[in-house]
C-alpha cells in the first residue's frame, strides 16, 4: 500500500512537471505570436490590405497573410514612407499595394459627413494619436500616391493619450465633401516606438458610375519606324469625365495616356512586325468605351548589321565595395544602329546585364572576402557584341558577422542572421519559431544589401 502511494505521488509530480513545461511553451508561443502578428488595420470601411486578405483585391502579394503589418517610420507628412510607397508603408515586401490606378482596387461606398472607422488590433501599442487624411478633390487616381495627392491637414485626429487601445476601436469622423473615387489614409502613431501604421482605404463617394465613355474616333497612324510609331485619334466624351486612354494590341494594353492627350508616341516596338491597334477611353469608375477603329501597320525591317559596337573604355569602381556589392562605371560605346545595352562579365561569365544606354551598374550578390575581375561589353539591337573593356579587379571585404538563422532562438534588435545565402537584420526582439524564417516575416527581419 505504501509502495502504491509513493508511486502515485511520483507519477503526479511528473505530470505536474510535464504540464508546467507545456504551459511554458504555450506562453512563449503566445507571446511570440503577439509580436509577429503585428499589429493593426482598419476593418470597416474595409482597407485596401484587408480587401486583399478577403479576396476582393487580387494579385496583392504577401499582404494577404499580414494585413496588420503595414508599419513604417512615424512623422507623416514631414517624415514617414517615401512618396509613391505610402500604401505599403515603405516596405518592399508589400510593394504591390503601391500600384495605383482608377481601376486597380476594389472600392467601398462612402458618403461625405459622419463616418465610423473601426480598427482591429492584434498587438496593442501605447498610442499618441490616430490621424485621417484624404486625397485632394483634383487628385489623379492614375498617378502614384504622393504627399502632393493628399490634403496634408488631417480631417480627423483622435488623441491616444499614450494608452493602449482595446482589441477593437471605433472613431467617428467628419469626412470632407468628395465625389467619385478617393483614397483615405489612416495613420496610427505609436507612443513608445519610432514607428506608425499606414492604412489606405479606397472609397467611392456618391452613386457608382456605370456609363462608359464614347469610343475614340478617327484613329490614325504615322511616323512608322523600325521600333516606333505615332497614333492620333478624336476625343471621347463621358457623362462625368474621361480619365484617360489605353492603346490595345489585341487584348494587351501597350500604352496609357491621360485624357488631355489624344495621341501616343509608341516606342519599343519590334522591327519588321505587323501591328493591329485600337484605342479605348476609360473613366474614373473604370468604365471602358467600345474600341475605336483599328489601324494596321508594319514596322520597318532592321538592316542586316554585323558590325559590333566599339569597346567600352574607362571601366572603374565607384566608391568602396561592400561585402556583397560593387558599383562599376565606364565610358559609353558607339554603334551605327545604337547601343542596346551592356553585359558585365566576371571572367567569362555574365553576371549582370543593362538594357539601354546607362553606363553605371551596382553589381550585387557577390560573396564576402572574394576577388572578382570585371569587364564590360556593349551590344547593339542585332546583338552584335563588342570586345572587352579594360579589366578591373575588386576584392570584397569580410561581411557582417551573421549567424545562420535557427528556430527557437532569442534574437535581439539589430542581430544579423544568414538565411538562404542572404543576410537579414532583426527589427523587433523575438524568439523564433518554425515558419517565421526571415524571408517570410518582413515585420521582423530587414534584408541587408
From TrEMBL:
UniProt keywords, alphabetically: Carbohydrate metabolism, Hydrolase, Polysaccharide degradation, Signal
Domain Fibronectin type-III, residue spans: 215-302, 308-399
Polar residues composition bias: residue spans: 381-398
SUPFAM superfamilies according to UniProt: Carbohydrate binding domain (SSF51055), E set domains (SSF81296), Fibronectin type III (SSF49265)
SMART domains cross-referenced by the UniProt entry: ChtBD3, FN3
Pfam families: CBM_5_12, fn3, LPMO_10
Annotated region described as Disordered, given as residue ranges: 379-405
PANTHER family: CHITIN-BINDING TYPE-4 DOMAIN-CONTAINING PROTEIN, GLCNAC-BINDING PROTEIN A
Identification of the protein by name: Chitin-binding protein
